[in-house]
Design goal:
Elements (H helix, E strand, L loop, with lengths): L1 H14 L6 E9 L2 E9 L17 E6 L1 H6 L1 H11 L8 H5 L3 E8 L5 E19 L5 E17 L4 E7 L2 H13 L13 H28 L1 H4 L3 H38 L5 H74 L4 E4 L4 E4 L4 H28 L3 H5 L1
Parallel strand pairs: 3-7
Antiparallel strand pairs: 1-2, 1-3, 4-5, 5-6, 6-7, 8-9
Helix pairs in contact: 6-8, 6-9, 8-9
Bound molecules: zinc ion.
Zinc ion binds next to α3.
Amino acid sequence: MEICREEKKMSRKAASCYCPKLETVSWRDCSGEKVVTTEKLTAQDLLKSKETEFAVADVTITYAEGDRIRRCRNCKTAFDERFSIPRVWWTTLAKRSNGYFGYQDILDSDGTRTGAISWVRFMVKRVSKVLDDHGVDEIKYHWVKLNAVTRWHASNNRTNIILFDHPHFALLNRDSILRDINPRELGDPFWVYPSMVEEIAQLHDVTIWETRNLLRDFELRRAFYRFNYKYLHEIPRHMTHVNEMVYVTESILTSIQKHHNHFLATDKAVDAPPRMFFLNIQSRLDSLHNMVTNLRHRAESNNARIQNEMALTYNDAARIDSSAMRAISLIGLLFLPAAFVAAIFSTSFFNFDAPTGIWKLSSHFWMYWAVAVPLTVVTVVSWFFGPVIMDKVMPQWRRWVE
Ligand SMILES: [Zn+2]
């Protein structure tokens, strides 16, 4: 017995680690009064069933660094136990993903839903124009991520939320979620998503306007940027990522709505009045979906504008090149007839005697035409049919000349 106690003690000791404490905000409805508490807890503290506000609150929001938790086996085990995080979430696939949404019911041995877990990842690319060390325009960018896991308990409608990684955006989301808590909606595990998606949609709006401003600046200063092809190519490069992320958000939102419908269709505990609150959540998600779709249309429109701008820039450059070539051709045209005549008269077929002023043409002048005309014909025919003949005789010739 004593040995077992000792082993338990050692096991508890082994489960602790030196990772920094996690900031956890807990929200509780105490007879109509909303109580918000902030605690600093270790991952092991999250497993306690009392002593902490985290253990008894209706809603808890914990901020954690995903990579640190991944690296620490003890923290990872505690998180798995407390939040039932799915195995795929820890994989490199999820870590490198450009976005996802997952949902899973927690079932008892009879197949009755006792809770639910959902996990989501959104990404947004922020861009801005700056001057580099040489005073030349360049585009700076950074990624903003929202990585969240939600664990909901059906028996007491408690929700545990973990926000990972991007600290500023995670705090912004935490404040939005706390602001939007409606005690009547806590029986629906999806109550947290309208707030999150709203923040992400607002960020997409900002970043789409950022790319639009880059584009507008280029359009207004077209002459200044005319031959700065490197900068011109940077704009669509970032715009492609911005657009991709709006598409991904829209796809995630579709998935959230689909799973929410599944929840509404299968939740037997839902009676008439709360069901209307839960349907309101679906309405808010529908409305946000519509806004994200329209943001995507704007992003596509920006993309069409930059393609148009690139086509115009290259056509303009080609036109300027073509004007220079035309000027050179005109000069050649002016001198060519005179040069041709001078070349013929300087041949030995013509003989000019300076002292007497007598000018004679050789009777063999026909030889000039006899050589020049066939040679011209051979040259023109070769120019027309030479590549076709070479393709048949020696197909690899183009590799040497192109
Ligand atoms: Zn740890």
